[in-house]
Specification:
The relative contact order is 0.08. The longest helix has 20 residues. Helix 5 packs across helix 8 and helix 15 runs parallel beside helix 16. Helix 23 links the parallel strand 20 and strand 21. It is built from 24 helices and 30 strands. The strands form six sheets. An eleven-stranded mixed sheet has the order 15-14-13-16-17-18-19-20-21-12-22. The protein has a seven-stranded antiparallel sheet with strand order 4-3-2-1-7-6-5. By secondary structure, the protein is α+β, with helices and mostly antiparallel strands.
Length: 752
């Protein structure tokens, strides 16, 4: 039972990969070493080693890969372009934050075999249905456990496999299952028998119990019974009849007549439906673009990155074009560029006055042109932090015009000075420059005009650092920085201005003016004048950014800023953790396009909403969220030591307005990461459902030290499907870790 089937193994490209190739692995201009690469028999694992590394080797799965870039399409390969022609070079791009693998083949044919072969395997992995995916996991486990590669598995290998799978099982029970599967009584299992063994191992009593509640004969769910389950448990109402029919057609694996008559579903089909995307916690209709995109930009939360050019921390980290590519691929719609004078008249991008490496401004803009609209067609805001001389600002303006051309929005859409900002819909495919501007859109100001102090960003506004830089010559010298007319003219809808208070903004501010706030300034304003901040953010854009003291590129909680309507809440995308999980969670909806419309009570200019007093808003209707955490499936091992098995617990965390911040957790289960069962219920009250995010965290309990992270999944409360649902867990990096999941039953009701 090879899930890849014979077809893919017969492909000439795949045959080259399976035979193996010596490829040059390139890390820099000076680090270029030969490694032997080959595709293993499972058609999914790529194995490589150095010729001299003895037994040491590395592997990765095709499922870890996102794409293959052909030719000189990375900074590293561009740096050696003269040494190795493009037709020998390719880059394997991984999901998440894992670094790329730059490779050079010995001949163009070999390069093509790997480029096309890997692309084919990625496509295959991405288009597998639930059944094929399940077969693939079984196949993977069989290969991992069949140490002597004889295509069979003896009991000793099975015992090792159980440990690898995170299962603690007494030997008698394991032997009992093994004997039942070993129908030929040969003392070993071949692949078909192993499938039977795996099925017995993964039999899920908790799913069987739900099935039994609705199945009259305990063997199958008739169409009406499935319809009843969908209506009562999954809260599907009128559409349940049609949906039941569709589910049988889609997930019923049995060939014994159900496919023909479409009238019943077996336990296997039922389990497959519950584990599928349709059975997941996330409402399918909210995954695609479903929101009104024709409102002013200020009415949306916008996925935004801080110090976008960094891959690591902001003292010594590497500045990289790859960091822009990664952020844009994640749906980020506001990127930051710190510009400084380059030595030969060519502006550079880096974190000023630190040891971070430098990249050319023109290369950043070329990368932006290439990747801006791959993940989303809605506008990208290019936030310029400008430390350049007037001469090099003019060079920047020339690059922006030359490279971006029509992509750059340099004129008013209808020639009129706007009373409100244009919409994401109207600005599709456009890049907006956010920077200082000489004068406003209303008048033409003489070229000799100088703008006042440079953006309050990251410099004068760095709170605690102020004390030490109070009268530094640098601060004085930049207090009246000159602005290049050419660069100024490119700024249309995002003019950076100093914030002079809500009262001043209310009477004088223009909709195209945007201010930046450090996290502490934004928190202070939110606390002192929450409603004013919400009103201000209905008309204008505001950008918040992490404190300059976060030299490790850590993040602040974005929820505090979203709760007062701030749109551009800039985070260090390069730093994994809770804050990026929340950002990914909010922007997982609406086609991952990087724009999420704010609730209606945050779009009305006269709103009285305050996050500190949610009960005072019009239409206030708190909800009760009840989560029965039933079980977990195939949780990943935290400690790779052979004997270690996790003790998992589940914590549910709510993030939203201050009153909604809450967390609760289950007890831990000893020594079972394979199929732990909790059956514990956690209850929460949600006062402002429209702003709440729900985070499911699984940890390995440790009584002596901090619990280890196993997996998480975060989503907006408004995107939750009630009923029996699976939560497909993600790694710390936000990438999928199939087949790890949680099985829950969720109910949402009005608070009475």
């Amino acid at each position: 039972m090879d899930p890849e089937g014979s077809r893919i193994q017969d492909d000439p490209y795949i045959q080259v990969m399976m035979a193996g190739s010596t490829l040059r692995k390139v890390k820099s201009r000076s680090w270029k070493k030969n490694r032997y690469f080959r595709l293993l028999e499972d058609g999914l694992t790529i194995w490589y080693k150095s010729r001299w590394a003895g037994r040491g080797h590395s592997t990765f799965s095709v499922t870890d890969l996102e794409a293959v870039r052909e030719g000189h399409q990375s900074e590293v390969l561009l740096s050696i372009a003269e040494e190795f022609p493009a037709e020998l070079c390719f880059t394997l791009v991984f999901h998440g934050r894992q670094g790329n693998l730059d490779l050079v083949a010995e001949s163009p044919d070999e390069a093509q075999a790997w480029i096309q072969g890997v692309r084919m395997l990625i496509h295959k992995a991405q288009t597998m249905d639930e059944k094929e995916r399940l077969d693939q996991w079984v196949w993977d486990w069989f290969h991992k456990a069949d140490k002597n590669k004889d295509g069979k598995m003896n009991f000793k290998e099975v015992k090792k496999l159980l440990k690898m799978m995170n299962v603690e099982m007494n030997e008698d029970h394991a032997l009992h299952l093994f004997t039942m599967a070993d129908k030929s009584e040969s003392g070993s299992l071949e692949i078909e028998q192993f499938v039977f063994f795996y099925k017995m191992l993964t039999q899920r009593d908790e799913v069987w119990k739900v099935f039994q509640d609705y199945s009259e004969d305990g063997e199958k769910l008739m169409l009406e019974e499935l319809q009843s389950f969908l209506s009562v448990e999954q809260h599907e109402g009128e559409q349940s009849a049609q949906h039941a029919q569709e589910l049988i057609e889609r997930y019923e694996p049995s060939e014994t007549g159900n496919k023909v008559t479409h009238c019943a579903m077996s336990l296997d089909g039922f389990q497959m439906y519950l584990c599928s995307q349709e059975g997941s916690i996330f409402k399918p209709e909210h995954q695609d673009l479903y929101q009104d995109m024709s409102q002013p930009l200020s009415h949306y939360f916008i996925s935004s990155s801080h110090n976008t050019y960094l891959l690591e921390d902001q003292l010594r980290g590497q500045s990289s074009l790859e960091a822009y590519i990664q952020a844009l691929k994640r749906g980020c719609r506001c990127v930051e560029v710190d510009c400084w004078d380059g030595y030969d008249g060519d502006p550079v991008v880096y974190h000023g006055h630190t040891l971070t490496s430098k990249i050319l401004f023109k290369d950043v803009i070329s990368t932006l042109k290439e990747y801006a609209f791959r993940a989303s067609e809605f506008p990208v805001i290019l936030s310029i932090e400008n430390h350049c001389s007037v001469e090099q600002q003019t060079v920047m303006a020339q690059y922006l015009r030359q490279i971006l051309g029509d992509m750059l929005q340099t004129t008013l859409l209808d020639g009129q000075v706007p009373q409100q900002l244009p919409s994401p819909q109207e600005l599709k495919g456009k890049i907006l420059l956010k920077a200082k501007k000489i004068g406003g859109l209303e008048e033409y100001v003489d070229e000799t005009c100088t703008d006042e102090v440079s953006d309050e960003e990251e410099m004068a506004n760095c709170d605690a650092e102020m004390a030490s830089t109070e009268d530094s010559p640098e601060k004085k010298s930049k207090a009246k920085s000159k602005m290049s007319r050419e660069l100024s003219d490119l700024v249309v809808y995002c003019k950076s201005v100093h914030f002079d208070g809500f009262e001043h903004a209310h009477s004088h501010a223009k909709c195209y003016e945007i201010s930046s706030f450090s996290e502490s300034k934004a928190k202070k304003l939110a606390k002192e004048a929450g409603t004013d901040f919400v009103q201000y953010n209905t008309r204008q854009l505001s950008r918040t950014y992490p404190s300059g003291l976060r030299t490790d590129s850590s993040n602040y909680n974005p929820q505090d800023m979203w709760s007062v309507g701030c749109q551009i809440v800039a985070l260090n995308f390069q730093t994994a953790g809770l804050e990026m999980d929340l950002n990914d969670g909010l922007f997982r909806q609406n086609g991952c396009c990087g724009y999420v419309i704010k609730p209606n009570f945050m779009r009305d200019g006269n709103t009285q909403f305050s996050p500190d007093k949610p009960e005072e808003r019009e239409g206030y209707k708190p909800l009760r969220l009840s989560i029965q955490v039933i079980s977990g499936q195939q949780l990943p091992k935290v400690n790779q030591k052979e004997g270690s098995i996790v003790d998992p617990l589940v914590r549910v965390e709510i993030y939203g307005v201050p009153q909604d911040q809450a967390k609760d957790e289950t007890s831990h289960i000893n020594n079972n990461g394979f199929n732990p069962v909790w059956n514990e219920t956690l209850d929460f009250t949600i006062h402002t459902p429209e702003l709440a995010l729900v985070c499911f965290v699984v940890e390995d309990h440790d009584k002596a030290s901090r619990n280890d992270f196993i997996g998480q999944y975060t989503l907006p409360f408004m995107c939750i499907q009630p009923g029996y649902r699976h939560i497909h867990l993600l790694s710390k990096d936000g990438t999928a870790i199939p087949p790890s999941s949680l099985f829950v039953n969720i109910s949402i009701s009005e608070l009475t």
